[in-house]
Sequence to fold (97 residues):
Amino acid sequence: MKHPTMSTLDIIEDMNRYYSDRVPYHDGYMGYSGNAEMEKLLSPLIARLEKHLAGKNVLELACGTGNWTQVICKRARSVVATDLFEGYLELARKKQF
Fold:
């Protein structure tokens, strides 16, 4: 029996639906509890990236709920953050930058 194959468009739509459905739960299941905790969690990566961000204008693609955006904003000259899902952007806008 031949199995139906999903088109690329079907896969993209499924992926978009998956992420869109998780907007309300994202920070909770990712363990986000505030910027101080995010800084602590990401400190090894921040130490490596900090010098590359200093004084730079940064475009952050797929910013999600803005967890990394908070970190980047403290170090870069400016940040433009965007995401495909308005729900994630709404959560990001509520955070302190």
Q: What stands out?
A: Residues 8-21 form the longest helix (14 residues). The two ends are 55 Å apart (CA to CA).
